[in-house]
């Protein structure tokens, strides 16, 4: 599933379909079905998703774990890998 930040911050009930009871999910909310799968969430540019409302919505996914992918983390938690400018240059990585 791919979802954007605007979907997290939607204000009208119709805009946030994931919280609606749908026939496609046998009368359950889509978020409840997704949460049962314990998804792995990968956030691109998480510093743009730091608001309380967005963070609250992310918790409803009941994710197994959450990974943040960014060049400009404001806060680092359980850092796995850093690719700095010098290493990127030495590895001949292209920014794309």
Task: Name the beta content range.
Answer: 5-15%
Largest sheet: 2 strands, antiparallel
The H/E string reads HEEHEHEH
Q: Measured on Cα atoms, how large is the radius of gyration?
A: 17 Å
- How many structural units, i.e. domains? 1
Q: Give the class from helix and strand content and strand pairing.
A: alpha+beta
Q: Could you give the order of strands across the largest sheet?
A: 1-2
* Distance between the amino and carboxyl termini: 23 Å
Average pLDDT, all residues:
79
User: Counting H and I runs of at least 4 residues, what is the number of helices?
Assistant: 4
Principal-axis shape equals elongated
Spans of 5+ residues with little confidence (pLDDT < 50)? Answer: none
Q: Report the strand count.
A: 4
Helix fraction by DSSP (H/I, runs of at least 4): 25-40%
Could you explain how this protein is built, in words?
The structure is a single chain. The chain is of the alpha+beta class. The protein has a two-stranded antiparallel sheet with strand order 1-2. Strands 3-4 form a two-stranded parallel ribbon. It is built from 4 helices and 4 strands. It has helices spanning 5-8, 30-36, 52-59, 85-90; strands spanning 21-22, 28-29, 40-44, 65-69.
